[in-house]
Amino acid sequence: MSLSPSQIRRLAAAARRAARSSYAPYSEFRVGAAVLTASGKIFSGCNVENASSGLTICAERTAVFTAVAAGQRRLVAVAVYTPTPRPTAPCGACRQVIHEFGPTATVLCVCDSPDRIEISLDQLLPKAFGPKDLR
């Protein structure tokens, strides 16, 4: 699905705002994410680090889990903001979680420059394992 300029602006702004709430005392890499659901609602999240690194959660998963906790099960798009000169795509774990609820969702990655990535999840995670594989 192609996002409208308005949807891109709203999602990118929500992801940037979410990064302000990031808890990143170890990496100082403050990431924000926002998801657009099939109902048109936007949910956001930030990364939350933990002294035990393996317990850290990425912004993308926080946003997806927030949407799911609110009863939303279909993702149309995910925006990720990183405080970098070039956009950064979601990690493998986040790609897998996004796939669960939006296997063809648009992934929009924005940063501190005008550069951006806009790609579908199925291009970022080809031949993904998902719910259809369990049936």
> Helix proportion of residues, in percent?
25-40%
SSE order, as H and E? HEEHEHEEH
- What class do helices, strands and sheet pairing give? alpha+beta
- State the CATH superfamily name: Cytidine Deaminase, domain 2
The biggest beta sheet is recorded as: 5 strands, mixed
The average pLDDT value, as a whole number, equals 96
Q: So what's the CATH class? A: Alpha Beta
N-to-C span: 26 Å
Number of structural domains? 1
The strand count comes to 5
Radius of gyration: 14 Å
- Specify the overall morphology: globular
How much of the sequence lies in strands comes to: 15-25%
CATH topology: Cytidine Deaminase, domain 2
Which stretches are poorly predicted, pLDDT < 50 over at least 5 residues?
none
What do you see in this structure?
With 135 residues, the chain is of the alpha+beta class. It has a single domain (5-134), classed as Cytidine Deaminase, domain 2. It is built from 4 helices and 5 strands. Strands 2-1-3-4-5 form a 5-stranded mixed β-sheet. The protein is globular and about 40 Å long.
Structure summary:
This protein has four helices and five strands.
Topology:
Blueprint: H1 5-19, E1 32-37, E2 42-46, H2 59-69, E3 75-81, H3 92-101, E4 106-110, E5 116-120, H4 121-124
Parallel strand pairs: 3-4
Antiparallel strand pairs: 1-2, 1-3, 4-5
Tag the structure with descriptive keywords:
alpha+beta, 4 helices, globular, five-stranded mixed β-sheet, 135 residues, 21% strand, 5 strands
